[in-house]
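Appendix C: a fully annotated inverse folding record. The material below is reproduced so that readers can follow the format used throughout the book. The structure is listed first as tokens, followed by the designed sequence.
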């Protein structure tokens, strides 16, 4: 897998071992990688732009609360930008702290993210295989990996 490199003008944050949140400006005519020049045109600081991006992520898919995970799994499904739910590190940190170490997430594609509480073992192995197959078949795969939240970022589930 190739790791993308961004120049210092493009706004990105590493949110996992191989995951990056990339700030973009989306309009009906185009999608543009947000850089300092674009933000200057919009009258936004980088921090204001990230805050706005996190707020807009809520319109894509609301992150469940820890209590909601009891016996349930969550699928974030839609036309685009579903992977952006992984970028709200502050909220996922709270959920992970309350749910425990078995919280997992898979950013299968731009249209589908799956999250559940599954301990290591055969069930997680089955999900891992399904995620890899679905990612390979997806038009816009994000990652074939399953992640756990550790130390403020998404890391590969062993």
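Designed amino acids, in order:
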């Amino acid at each position: 897998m190739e790791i993308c490199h961004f120049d210092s003008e493009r706004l990105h944050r590493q949110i996992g071992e191989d995951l990056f949140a990339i700030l973009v400006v989306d309009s009906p005519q185009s999608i543009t990688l947000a850089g300092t020049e674009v933000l200057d045109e919009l009258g936004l600081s980088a921090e204001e732009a990230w805050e706005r991006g996190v707020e807009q992520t809520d319109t894509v898919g609301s992150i469940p609360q820890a209590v909601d995970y009891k016996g349930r799994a969550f699928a974030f499904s839609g036309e685009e930008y579903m992977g952006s739910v992984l970028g709200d590190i502050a909220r996922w940190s709270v959920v992970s702290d309350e749910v425990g170490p078995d919280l997992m997430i898979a950013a299968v594609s731009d249209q589908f993210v799956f999250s559940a509480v599954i301990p290591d073992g055969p069930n997680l192995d089955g999900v891992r295989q399904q995620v890899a197959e679905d990612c390979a078949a997806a038009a816009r795969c994000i990652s074939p990996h399953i992640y756990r939240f550790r130390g403020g970022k998404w890391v590969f589930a062993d």
